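Raw record, unedited: S-adenosyl-L-methionine-dependent methyltransferase
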Amino acid sequence: MFNLTNKLDSSDNSESDTYNDTLLDSFRFINGRRYHNDSEVSYSLPNDEDEADRLNFQHSLLKYAWQGNHSSPVQERLTKGKARVLDVGCGTGKWLLEMSRDYQDSTFIGLDISPMFPDPSETPSNVAFLQCNVNDGIPFPDNTFDFVFQRFFSKYVTAEQWEDVTREIVRVTKPGGWIEFFEDDIEYEEIDHFGLQILNAIFAAIEAKKGNPHPTAIIPPILQTIPELSNIHHKKVPIPIGKWGGKLVTSTLNISNEIHEDICEVVAQGFDINKVSSVTHRWFAQKKTT
């Protein structure tokens, strides 16, 4: 995992001082938690070790729920080798690391604004990571990748930014290649007043940062309007929230571990009765060859 302490202990004075100043400018610290320091970006979750643990747990949970790391029909292409795969907003790189070990003859690249990437000693030779803000564009030429994956991104960008990033993803995908988006939304038939307050507070926090708490409302129409795409598919898997779902409430709603137990105690009964779920969605589509 990214180790800030080791980076700051460099003994090359002039170069390391410049590097350390730049590195420190990348972060801000609030109540003992580390965050990225780009005021132009609406992503508001931490990027420290605790958050890395949450993201890794979340990945394992989602892989179990979906029984796999992707829905796009790319297994044969990746198995043959020499395929290129991009993960946009890769976080800790857990998805990439697993994919790279499953398909060792293909190449995997991860992009993220927060440098939470694995230590190089833990990174296979067919994986690379690049820190960048994809709202400024994806730094690769047209038609570079056979498969581009993105997960839990739309909550942290405006609808306009999401459309721009989607078009960038299509641009860097090879003709005949596949793109895949993984998002979640909340579904319930009934809910008690306090539970509704909790959900509304989460939605309001996302909207305050100009994100999209309900990606299912924006993603399908955007995909349908991009002329380069065909074979658009959609699948969904509901994941329970509340005590009937255990710590799924922590991972799928991006709630910090510190408040998980308190929330569960207060709202779990209502969530259990009404079987409130975080419904996870995968949209995947193929770029046309002509």
